[in-house]
Write a structure and sequence with these properties.
This protein has a domain of 221 residues: Dipeptide-binding Protein, domain 3, CATH 3.10.105. A 7-stranded mixed sheet has the order 9-10-11-2-12-20-13, with helices on both faces. A 6-stranded mixed sheet has the order 15-19-14-18-16-17. By secondary structure, it is α+β, with helices and mostly antiparallel strands. It has 15 helices and 24 strands.
Length: 518
Amino acid sequence: MKQFRRLKKLGLYGLLLAGLCAAGIAVPAQAEIKVLRIGIGVDADTLNPQEQTTTLIQNMCDLIYDTLFFQKPDGTLEPRLATGYDVSDDGLTWTLHLREGVTFSDGSAFNAEVMKQTFDRILNPDLRVPLRFAVSMVKECTIVDEHTVALHLKFPFAPLADALSMTLNAPISPKALEEYGEDVRQHPVGAGPYVLEEWVQGDRIVMVRNEDYFGKKPTVEKIIWKVVPEVSTREAMLRSGQIDICYKPSPANVSGLKADPNVQVDMPLDTRTIFMGLNCQKGVTQDKLVRQAFNYAVDKEAIVKKILFDTAVPMDAPVSPIVFGHKTMDKQYPYDPDKAKALLDKAGFDYDTVVSMRTPNGRYLFDKQVSQAVQAYLQAIGVKVELRTYDWPTYVAGLLKPLEESELEVFLLGWGPLFLDADMGLYGQFTCEVNPPKGLGAAFYCNPEYDELMKRSRMELDNEKRKELLVEASRMVWEDCPWIWLHVEKFVIAYSQEIQDLVVTPTEKFYPTYISKQ
C-alpha cells in the first residue's frame, strides 16, 4: 500500500514572515495586483481541457479548472482537487480521495460523480481527446463514496500519479456541460482560481479571480492574455510596460533582455523537443533512407547557435535529457551533406519532386526561421521544397486530419511531455494508437515491434527495467527517423523586474496566481 503525502516548503520569505508573526510583529498583507498583462504568440483553439494539444492553452485551462495534482518545477506533486491516493498491492486499483467543499465557479458541486463523468468523457472513443493515450491504461472509473473514486487499470502503470496531474484530467462543471454541450470549449467553467470573463478571438483572453476558489486567494485580480504574434512587438510591449510578461521572446534578444535592469528572464531546459515531422506513410518521406538523408542534410548545431542563440540544445535522443528514460543515442546524425546526397541517390530519389513543408509562426522559438533554415539545407542538397506558414489554430486543424486527408509531408512541430517521464514522449508520438485523428503522432509512424516494446515498458513497475525498455524503444525510433531530430528548447519567458514569485516549470508552463510586485 502506498500513500501520497503532501510536503510543504515555506521558502526563505515564508520562514521570515513566520518568524515575524511568532515574535508578535505585524506584517503587511500581500498586495493585490489589479491587472496582469501577458503577451502570447497564438490564440487558443479550445478551452476544453480534454481537447488540449498545446501547452500554453493547457496553462490557461489550469487556471480556470485546476488539476487533481499540481506538478511543481522539481517534478514533485502537490494536492489540488485530489488530496491523495492509495494503490492496491497488485497496482490495478488507484483510489483517489477528492477534496471536499469544492464548488465550480457556477456554484455546482465537485464530487465523485463529476470525477467519474470526467473519466467517462476522457475514455469515450466518440469524443476528440488527443492526449487520451496518457491515461489509456485506465479501464473505468467507479464511485466509492461522495468524495472518493476508484480507477481500475488494464495493467499497472508506474507514473500514473504524474499523468493525473495533467490538464487532461481536469473536471468541467456538469452544469456547463448540460448547458453548452461540446460548445463548452468556448464557455469554460471550472473550479480553478480564475473565471473566463471575455474571449475576443485573435486579440485577447481575459480571466478574473474566482472569489469562491477553494484554495488561497490569488493575488492577481485580472489576467489579460494579449495575442501578439510578432515577437518583436511583444518584446517592445514588455520594455514599454504595456505588458508584464512576454511569452517566448526572440532568442536573438535574450541577452539584451537579460541586460535590461527592468526585465528578468527565466529559461530552464524544457521537456519540449522541436522537430520536422516526416510523414512515414505518404510522399517521398515514406522511404527510411530519405528520412535519414534529411537528418544528415541539416546542421542542427548551427541552428541552435546561429538562429536560436543557445536557447536550445541539439537533440541527442528522441526525448529531452531532463526526463526519466533519456539516454544519448550511440548513433548520431551529424551535418554531412555528402552522405545525405548519397542516401538520396541510393533511395532513387526524384529530384524533380517538390516536397511540401509546413510551419506555424509564433508558437515555438523562431519556428518560422528554423523552418526556413531547414528548407535552405534541403535545397542545398538538391531537394525542391515549398514552405507555407499558418496561424496556430489552422495548423492544429491540419495536424488532426486522418492520413487520407492529410497534406502533411514535412512539418515543424514541438512535443513537450507534461510530466518528467519518457513514456509520454515516446508513446505519445510514435505508437500506432496515436496517429491522427485519434492522437497527435502526425508523422504517421507505425511499427508493431516498437508498439510491443512500449506496451512492455508501460506494464513494467521496476524503474530500472522500465528505463531499459524505454531506451531500447528510443534506439528503434531514432534509427527509423520519423522526424528530423532538431533541438530541445529552453523555456524562455521574460517579465517585469517588479514581479516576484512567478512559478516557471520545465514543462513549459508558468503560474502567476500568487505573484507579488516590488
